[in-house]
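lol so apparently i was supposed to do this last week
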Amino acid sequence: MTGAIRAAVLTDIPTLTTLIVRSARQLSRGYYTEQESESAITYVFGVDSSLIADGTYYVIEADGVLVACGGWSRRRTLYGGDQRPIGAPAELLDSAIDAARIRAFFVAPQYARRGFGRILLAHCVTAAAQAGFRSLELMSTLPGVPFYGALGFDSIESVRDLLPDGVSLPFVRMTRPISVPANRDASGTTR
Ligand SMILES: CC(C)(COP(=O)(O)OP(=O)(O)OC[C@H]1O[C@@H](n2cnc3c(N)ncnc32)[C@H](O)[C@@H]1OP(=O)(O)O)[C@@H](O)C(=O)NCCC(=O)NCCS
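anyway here it is w/ coenzyme A bound
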């Protein structure tokens, strides 16, 4: 199935929020407990509107609906949404030294495993490369690890975020060079 990719706009936020909650709830099963998943939805999973303002957050529309979202960032914040900002969002990265961030990928459950995540990642890689970045870094959810692993990222650190309700949520920090070996396509997938 094909979908049209475009930059997200602020008026997408209500629809994106619904998509993110449904994606997180259903696609986290087997990776996070229900309590972890609900805490993550409350405190971590959500839109970071600074990416929308930067023009680096994207949506895919298919069948007339938003089916996927995700983006990259030239700012230091590694993860999180507007509801609980983590780090200093205004701080710009130096493309000569720092890794561009890959941020907040969510696919609607009924559209999972149809390649939309891969399309979004390839789009982000191309844009970050055009902005001069040479590497990528992200904080992956546990359901995200097999996805990012298949697209060329290496796990470098297991991290826990202690949320305000006492839940300690596990994540994995992952990195990847922008350029991938010749046997991989722009998304990083091995051909
Ligand atoms: C992670 C996520 C964005 C992947 O999106 P997707 O559109 O389903 O991924 P794709 O179809 O492009 O998958 C690309 C490849 O990643 C790997 N992959 C994706 N999901 C996988 C899973 N659940 N288990 C194992 N491998 C997986 C596969 O190799 C897949 O290729 P294949 O389908 O040809 O085997 C989606 O599962 C999601 O929204 N999860 C919940 C939210 C979340 O945790 N997001 C990560 C935020 S950091």
